[in-house]
Amino acid sequence: MAIIGSIIKNLIDLRDTLVSDPDAQKAQHGELEKLLKKAKDTSFGKHYDFQGILKSDNIEKSFAEKVPYFDYNKINNEWWSKMHEGEEDVTWPGKPPYFALSSGTTGKTSKRIPVTEDMVEAIRKAGIKQVSALSHFDLPSDFFEKDIMMLGSSTDLHDEGDHQEGEISGISASNIPSWFQGYYKPGKEIAKIDEWDDRVQKIAENAKNWDVGAISGIPSWTELMMKKIIEYHKVDNIHDIWPNLQVYASGGVAFEPYEKSFNALLDHPLKVIDTYLASEGFLAIQERPDSHSMKLILDNGIYFEFVPFKPEFINEDGSIKDEAPVISLSEVEEEQDYVLLISTVSGAWRYLIGDTVKFTDVEKHEIRITGRTKFFLNVVGSQLSVNKMNDAIQALEDKFDIKIPEYTIAAVRIDGEFYHSWYLGTDSNIEEEKLAQALDEELKGANKNYKVARSKSLKGVKVTTIPPGLFPEWSGANKKKGGQVKMEKVMKEEKFAEWEAFVKKQLES
């Protein structure tokens, strides 16, 4: 009998019973008020008169009127860069002990996002909420005695003067409480290995020594890890190594495009739990097993705002136009795409995190990530968002019974005419023309703007199939393998030309 597991499970069940959800509007008002009060004497708080905002009759409205939108480039150039010059009390009291490096999905240059002690604590609290939510997933008592594989970036943070730098998953893992160390895998020593291939090799070598019950990580990299373990031990699937593996906590991107290829590595399906941990904070958790939607964490150091995701409000680089309207949590509607803005205990203010979300349940404040503002393809009025692309790819998988875990797309000009050029990562041998026709028809049926574009400026669709392994190799060549790195779903023509040259070179070598 799993005595310790039963005790832990009972404690989780008890906490879930005792801790009730806060009133959403009161919670968000309270978070904004606390943020403004704590930051009112910072350079940013004085510049935008946080003191005056706090004295207003409607602090939410006053905050939105006085403080502009910020994307990373704007807030970094105007404010965060001052921290690297030694300034204190810039956008948050004191100086942050960490900076999260995030190359995101574009370019080789890492963003450097401040992570304060308050944010480390907020992430820890969100993690506890996620563990508490496991009480809803009908897991046996012995599950709570199993190891947890956290496949993030290296925990070997780099010292940079008075602070340390690393990816947010590495920062979070380096702050794991002592009581959790016994469950945490791959453990401190392996987690410190900086090179992804070396770290995964060590994980594969040690995999049989661990009794893993849950894995957390980005789907693409988790899939590659499992493939490496299966290959190293010459077994059929990951359950031959970890028979008690029951839960996969996905994060960062939608899991659905990876579902078929992911499940092919298993003996039986896992309980998939979505999480929303970004470099800027832990934003949402999945609380219910009958839905992949995630509940916004409304009382934990983050204030949320929403901008309707419409072409007229978005600049070509994915930033928000100054005149774009903003709405509060109380005004959102279900099944509408919004650009997410956050203000946080790390000193991000009305910050464009880059993700678009939709509410699947307004009453429960549950969301799905629908894409990235930079991955909105609208060159000829097609208005394709990532969720529409993902849906179309899933339809192809079902129609042809194939697996397409990765893809990328660009609008390219051929003889003066625009085409959508898709690269699909698949090992199938379906004719590319058949895939192109099916993809085109699927998008016409699902998106009226795309259908109109196809009758006018968008002349056709081209599909090229390539081995799925080329996608992580591209990431490795341009940024870094593993961690928080995600593949670009939409590329500009110049970047796409580099991608095509890379693919051609890899296929010829």
From TrEMBL:
<feature type="coiled-coil region">
    <location>
        <begin position="429"/>
        <end position="456"/>
    </location>
</feature>
<dbReference type="InterPro" id="IPR004993">
    <property type="entry name" value="GH3"/>
</dbReference>
<keyword id="KW-0175">Coiled coil</keyword>
<dbReference type="Pfam" id="PF23571">
    <property type="entry name" value="GH3_M"/>
</dbReference>
<dbReference type="InterPro" id="IPR055378">
    <property type="entry name" value="GH3_C"/>
</dbReference>
<dbReference type="Pfam" id="PF03321">
    <property type="entry name" value="GH3"/>
</dbReference>
<protein>
    <submittedName>
        <fullName>GH3 auxin-responsive promoter family protein</fullName>
    </submittedName>
</protein>
<dbReference type="InterPro" id="IPR055377">
    <property type="entry name" value="GH3_M"/>
</dbReference>
<feature type="domain" description="GH3 C-terminal">
    <location>
        <begin position="390"/>
        <end position="494"/>
    </location>
</feature>
<feature type="domain" description="GH3 middle">
    <location>
        <begin position="296"/>
        <end position="363"/>
    </location>
</feature>
<dbReference type="Pfam" id="PF23572">
    <property type="entry name" value="GH3_C"/>
</dbReference>
